[in-house]
Amino acid sequence: xxxxxxxxxxxxxRTAAEILxxxxxxxxxxxxxxxxPLDGAEIARVPLTPPExxxxxxxxxxxxxxxxxxxxxxxxxxxxxxxxxxxRAAKAELGALVxxxxxxxxxxxxGEVQEMIDICDFAVGLSRQLYGLTIASERTGHxxxxxxHPMGPCAVVTAFNFPVAxxxxxxxxxxxxxxxxxxKPSDKTPLTxxxxxxxxxxxxxxxxxxxxxxxxxxxxxxxxxxxxAADPGVAIVSATGSTRMGRAVAPVVAARFGRAILELGxxxxxxxxxxxxxxxxxxxxxxxxxxxxxxxxxSLRRLIVHDSIRAELVSRLKAAYASLPVGDPRxxxxxxxxxxxxxxxxxxxxxxxQARAEGGIVHGGEPxxxxxxxxxxxxxxxxxxxxxxxxxxxxxxxxxxxxxxxFAEAVAMQNAVPxxxxxxxxxxxxxxxxxxxxxxxxxxxIANVNIGPSGAEIGGAFGGEKETGGGRxxxxxxxxxxxxxxxxxxxxxxxLPLAQGVRFDF
Length: 506
Ligand code: NAD
Description:
There is one protein chain. The protein is an alpha/beta fold. It is about 35% helix and about 20% strand. It is built from 13 helices and 23 strands. The chain has helices at about 15-20, 55-70, 75-100, 105-125, 165-175, 190-205, 220-230, 245-255, 280-290, 305-320, 340-355, 405-415, 430-435, and strands at about 1-5, 30-35, 40-45, 135, 140-150, 155, 180-185, 215, 235-240, 260-265, 270, 300-305, 325, 360-365, 380, 400-405, 420, 420-425, 445-450, 460, 465, 475, 485-490. Helix 9 (about 280-290) links the parallel strand 11 and strand 12 (about 300-305). Helix 1 runs antiparallel to helix 3 (about 75-100), helix 3 runs antiparallel to helix 5 and helix 9 packs across helix 10. The protein starts with a strand and ends in a 15-residue tail after the last strand. The mean pLDDT is about 95. The site of nicotinamide-adenine-dinucleotide has 30 residues, from helix 7 and helix 8.
């Protein structure tokens, strides 16, 4: 391990105050302390929205909906086009704030903003492609069609680890679909949310006549999210976070027949087959298991390796891990930044203790002395089997390694966890690759061949099955979750025939 200290040569020495100022966030006052994972220091205080303020926010969103749904979709797309332009202009500063507040390395902080830009581009095109269907009617002189209409206010509850990109996946689609957005960001990352709202305000000012209340941001904890989930004025609740959160939100939304889009925890695996290109596999494994300090919903957590190559792969991974620069994410060479806070580090250490008790051999996984935040060395854990701790998502850089002998056994292991987000196989064997993608293969929402499980492009629908919640966001036809479908039949004949040939003469 190479340690990168905050004073490292080349690290941006801008203060938190300077980065906040560059994002239009000077002079914030409030009760809620925001800490940077870089060193655990308080960098700002922000005002909290009390849960009692939620009904008024929903009423504003409802009023905005009444106006926005009547705006032609391509015009709605113009707002998102302007947002994309403003994000391009603000990319460097917002990326720096993501690094400061969420602890991502510089390139990943910028990558997060790029993802926001990409989804804006996608949504602008979509605003002219909210296609419905024409359907053949069984009745003479009748026409059937299926149309998509705006749905209503969309609450977007987001997690700390993608503090701004997940909002944009939802907001860019919801806005072109005609839905106002109420954002409840993680209370660990309110600053990036406030900075994003400043950027959106610039786009709204240039747009000119968007209704007041079209896009709101309520800073607060779980209570705000719970109030939004329960409010019948919120048509769609798109909630990203832990499965624990989803278990609380889903029944509340269901009880009022609201629509939920759930993007919850993952426990993502890679199968490495005997024919795999091991050079590529090692690169993919290290990025997916260690990137973002293991704090992606799609981070690689389980490695299922054929017994014939297991020893070699583990030895190559141990060598790669030993060379990883851990430390200040602002420094150019750093690849592993801090965990979000001390509680996350304690959960990682507790998981490693449990893994040892379940027969695991742990390499790495130690707190880094001498660095001020919750810095850890990433862990490789050789497990005798897929034990209880392996089936849980621990949001930290822990990679459990298990062996397999035959392909069917590997697929069964990959699927034998409660979560179903992302999965992949490294193989040069066409039969294995296609079987992994087939109906008896991976049961996840995302399945890749010769690519790691993380770092999805925005063009595909993103989400997973089982305890991951079943939601889909971002590309493909995920937009349909933000609209209501209407089937319309028009009778342009002079008769009134009934469907299925039913006679009802009187
Ligand atoms: P978290 O569940 O603690 O919090 C997520 C959000 O939910 C926060 O805004 C939080 O305030 C809110 N919340 C918590 N309890 C709530 C409740 N009872 N009612 C309403 N809102 C509530 O998650 P986190 O620690 O911020 O993020 C890490 C988790 O998020 C991991 O499990 C990760 O896999 C998951 N995640 C999933 C995706 C995905 O797309 N599937 C993406 C990013 C993160």
